[in-house]
Amino acid sequence: MAAPEEQDLTQEQTEKLLQFQDLTGIESMEQCRLALEQHNWNMEAAVQDRLNEQEGVPSVFNPPPSRPLQGLLGWGYYLIMLPFRFTYYTILDIFRFALRFIRPDPRSRVTDPVGDIVSFMHSFEEKYGRAHPVFYQGTYSQALNDAKRELRFLLVYLHGDDHQDSDEFCRNTLCAPEVIALINSRMLFWACSTNKPEGYRVSQALRENTYPFLAMIMLKDRRMTVVGRLEGLIQPDDLINQLTFIMDANQTYLVSERLEREERNQTQVLRQQQDEAYLASLRADQEKERKKKEERERRRRKEEEVQQQKLAEEKRRQNLQEEKERKLECLPPEPSPDDPESVKIIFKLPNDSRVERRFHFSQSLTVIHDFLFSLKESPEKFQIEANFPRRVLPCVPSEEWPTPPTLQEAGLSHTEVLFVQDLTDE
Where is the stretch described as Disordered (predicted)? Predict the structure, then answer.
């Protein structure tokens, strides 16, 4: 049994390990990991350095000891052997590359990780029964994410189908009631066979030495970290003690992370509340400004309307005055008092004033209307009425009188009193 230890683990590094192995043909996963670590997990730099080594160019991490060339002989030997070395390593790389296609490890291609988990669960229950810890029914990456999000311990079990201790461990230790109770109450449990592609990929990342293999993973310093490894056959009581020891030793990190997360959440809530208050204040200010703008616009339109009305009224009065002057200029001369065909008419205006003028019997009633219209004190719109008999004189064209009659045709006498009725407001 190995003592608990810590080891950083990320899904991205696992993917890079497999990709580097595919590109370089290096069989040892440990050698692949060391090469990537030397290049700070820079895939391109690590692959390029590996190709340089194969072509005879020294690695930047394993430079040859510096010594002067021993004359022209050394240079000549190097130049002669360079084409042969290049051809040899090129053919060797092509052979290795082709060999990986001809005889690939079927476990290196993960096509259905969830299917691998479900298949292992079914085979486990068929062999050991349904009394076991609750398996996490998802991929290894999903289990890591859930453990990180929920701030829980994640116990990973890699099952070696061909190992001599796997059967006894599963039957007597992993399925023990006290072990089941501990695992179900305090951690997530993810398990898979290393014969499955998903389990094989996790195995390459965790680098177990023997089976049964257990790894305790948790969020530590904001990274999912292996904080304990248990390898080899272990009895239920020892397993419980080891798991309890690992959890107790690292519980403070989860508590600290919970406090930090709560503080971040509270800060986020406070910031959100402040943002909401700011937005509410901003909306209120914008609403006030909108109302002020609307009020300014309303006053402006009102002022423009009043100004337009004033201009229209002035224009109307100007037109009216011009029309009065035109009517006055067009009036026929006033007949003399001695003219036997003249008619003396006294007009009573709405303002109680009186106006007197003579007209000719042969003139149209329109002349009377034009005369009154040209007066300054006459209303803008009016009608002329006679008393005996009481009637309205048709002084302007209408449907009944398209052509207004003459004074004689209207039945006026030599002297008449007519009344001017104001119709301006009607």
Answer: 281-342
